[in-house]
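Write out the 3D structure for:
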Amino acid sequence: MTKKAFDVDAFRRALLAWYDANRRDLAWRRTDDPYEVWVSEVMLQQTQVSRVTEYWPRFLERFPTLSALAEASLDDVLAAWSGLGYYRRARSLHAAARVLVDRFDGKVPESAHELRELPGMGEYTCAAVASIAFGEDVAVVDANVVRVLARLTALAADPSRGEARRAIRSEATRLLDASRPGDFNQAMMELGALVCTPAAPRCDACPVAAGCVALERGDPEGYPISSGATGTVELREVVVVAIREGEVLLVRGGHERGWWEGLWTLPRSPLSETDDPREIARSLVVDRLGLGCESLEGPTEATYGVTKHRVTMSAFLARGTSGSCDGDAGKTVDFRWVAIPDLDRVGIPAPDRRAIEELAGGETSSAPSTTLAAVELEGPAGHSPST
C-alpha cells in the first residue's frame, strides 16, 4: 500500500474536528450503555441509518436490558426485528444475550477479543462495540472505512482480498486516535457515508483531502479497485395470502432456498418462465395445502433482493379459504393462522408483510412498514455504507 507522507496527528485532529462539527445527531450516539451500543451496531450492518432510527428505540422499548432480551423467546425477538432484514443478526443477538446472562453475569465484555467469543460477533461489530462503549483502541473497518483508506492511499488492489485487505486493516490501525478511539472510528465511517461516497465524492468538503493520493491523481472514483462483482441471479415465485375469517395462513421458514430461518412466511412456490402464475397459486392452495378457496385475486407484482438474487414475486389473495391444511405441504411444514391485528407480534419477512398489507386491504397493525418493491436484502454480515 502506498503511504503518502503526511502528518498523522494533523490527520486525526482534522478528522475529529470535522466530526465534532458535522456528525449526525443519532440516538445511539447519545448513549455509552454497552448493550444499547451493541444493538445499534448490529442493526447498522447492511441497513440504512433511516431504518435503524425507527427500529432501535422500538427494540429497546421491547427489550430494555440484556436480561430482557435473553429471557424473551426467539419468536418475540424476530417479531421485533421483522422488516429490518438480515434475520441472522437477530438470532445471533438473542443467542449472544443468553450466553452473556449464563456465563458473564449479564455483562457485555469490554474487549474486542472477548466479544469475538460470542455468537454472531464478527470483527467489525467487536471493534465497534469495544471502541465506542469501552474506549478500547481498536480500529473499525467497514465498507465506508475501506473506501476512505483505499482513496487516501490509492490502493492498487482489491481491498477485499488477501494482502490488500491486510494492508487496509494495518492502515486503519496506524491512523487510529487512541485518545478517542470510538469517536475516531465513527468519524471515519461518517466521512465515508457523508463525504467520501461511492459516487460523486464531495472532495471539496473533505477535511483530509490534502492527504488523499487518489484525489491528487484526479481519480477518486477509481478507488477502491474491484476484481469484478458477481452477476445477479433472477428468480420468480408465487406467494399466496390465504384469508380465513380474518386470519392469514403462515408457514414456518417456508422458502425452498432456506431463507428466513425461524420466521413465519407466506406459502410460496418457485415459478419458471413457462409457468402460469395463477395456476401455480391455485395448485399451491388447493393441491399442496389442501384448502378450499372461494376466489383467487391478483397477482400483485413486486421485487426484492436476497444476497445475489433478485426475486420477482407474484402475490395472490385467496379469499374464503376453508379446511385445515391437510395437503402435502401442510403435512411437512409447521403452519399457523394469525389474526391480522396480531401480525406485528410475529416475525415475518418484509416482502411477505408488505404483500399482506397490500392484499388484505390495509387491515394490518401499526408495525413499521416497507415498500413492496426492492426490500429485504439478505446476505453475509458486514457493515455497509450508512446513508
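Strands lie at 233-244, 247-252, 264-265, 268-270, 295-306, 309-319, 335-339.
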